[in-house]
Amino acid sequence: MAVAVRGLAAGDSVADAITARVDIPAGHKVALRAMAAGELVRKYGWPIGRATVDIQPGDHVHTHNLATALSGLDTYAYEPTNPEPLPATGNRTFMGYRRKDGRVGTRNEIWILSTVGCVSRTAQKVAAEADKRFKGRVDGVYALTHPFGCSQLGGDLEATRRMTVALAGHPNAGGVLIIGLGCENNQLGPLLESAAHIDPDRLRSFSAQTAEDELEAGLEAVEELVRIVEQDRREPCPVSDLVIGLKCGGSDGFSGLTANPLVGRIADKVCAAGGSAILTEIPEIFGAERLLMTRAESEAVYEDIVGVVNDFKSYFIAHGEPVSENPSPGNIAGGITTLEEKSLGAVQKAGRAPVTEVVHYGGQIRGTPGVALLEAPGNDAVSSTALTAAGATVILFTTGRGTPLGFPAPTLKLATNSSLAQRKQRWIDFDAGRIASGESMDAAADALMDLVLATASGRPTRAEENGEREIALWKRGVTL
């Protein structure tokens, strides 16, 4: 027989199976009571879809008898709730790099960025040689490249430029080299004008078409930066200087029970201390957006949340796609049936702190204590790149299926189940499945907070140890 956890909230009609019989895999849902066809099915206290046939107590509830109730645009009302007090974090610190603008980095790296995909290999060659040549003098030299920057127009081109500038100004980059080609749409001149706020002592650039030897030019520029960056030192910094990115990928039925609420505890701790947390993946809050709207710090922020949600739904509709085209095959295999269910589990990463701002793609957070909602899709690489560009200096990435991907900001992978943590020890930094085995959420949160602070102080993540570091840009416009 399957053993099911009790309903997560009063009125829930399903729960998740922890140990399983053959026909109800672990992490999948079991009915707690009878439900008629057409009835709303509830989990986490909210609807996750409608029963498509009559369901009896003890039945397996999944794609064969449950379907999404999402359709198109929704209307909303401003109904703020009184925020609950957040947990005190004490006077904890981490060892970070304080930059001239007051922000604090968790790494002291040199990043080589490209304006266009044509010079991606050039940037990679320069980074590989420079990392060997200057090993130990900085935290590493890395190329962050993409295939875009040419054959783009209007807002699409501007988004590529904004993202490049945002990454160039990131506090984890002690120095930045931007390599252009010369004839691309994403011209180096206008890009550098947009980067005028970045410390010029720590920024170098050149166009490959005008350099006599682009590889030597790149190595000379990196050497100049190394001489400056290697003087930087870590210093004690309060938790209020942390900016954590919140991400889930390859979710399963345990995501909303273990890893995501655990990350929510960390978000609460950081926000309570005066730091910031960034939640993104807008299509993966559809069906749960009202939970965030009730936490809007002001009516203006509420209106911004409504705007970014409906704009993203309109983006799907304009392309002839349903707003509910989610979860993925891996999510479904792991027990998630509808987008509402996935979203209600995903938003738990944001804890209980107020939502203080909405940031559009390519923008940076103001640094106001609380949760920032960032416009970006659910794609792991695109959204994690956007989190970094927005200012995240550590990313907490929950997963029930596993992925080796890494991103520019140090990314901690949290397994939602212990089986994944045991099988993929080279990928996983923290086993949140221990909660399903009986460990208290508070004890797990204390252990994870220790790991977050150690990572912010320089401890490498599994992805960093494996050399996994990627960026991806969100291309929405036409290609010439």
TrEMBL record:
Gene3D superfamilies the UniProt entry points to: 2.30.130.110
Domain SAF: 1-67
Top-level EC class: lyase
SMART domains the UniProt entry points to: SAF
EC numbers: 4.2.1.7
InterPro entries cross-referenced by the UniProt entry: GD_AH_C, GD_AH_second, SAF, SAF_UxaA/GarD, UxaA_altronate/galactarate_dh
Sorted UniProt keywords: Lyase
This protein's record includes keyword Lyase: yes
Any GO MF annotation of the entry: altronate dehydratase activity
Example of a GO biological process term: D-galacturonate catabolic process
Regions crossing the membrane: none
Taxonomy, superkingdom: Bacteria
Keyword Aminoacyl-tRNA synthetase: no
Pfam families listed in its UniProt record: GD_AH_C, GD_AH_second, SAF
Similarity remark: Belongs to the UxaA family.
Full protein name: Altronate dehydratase
Species, as recorded: Sorangium cellulosum (strain So ce56) (Polyangium cellulosum (strain So ce56))
Lineage: Bacteria, Pseudomonadati, Myxococcota, Polyangia, Polyangiales
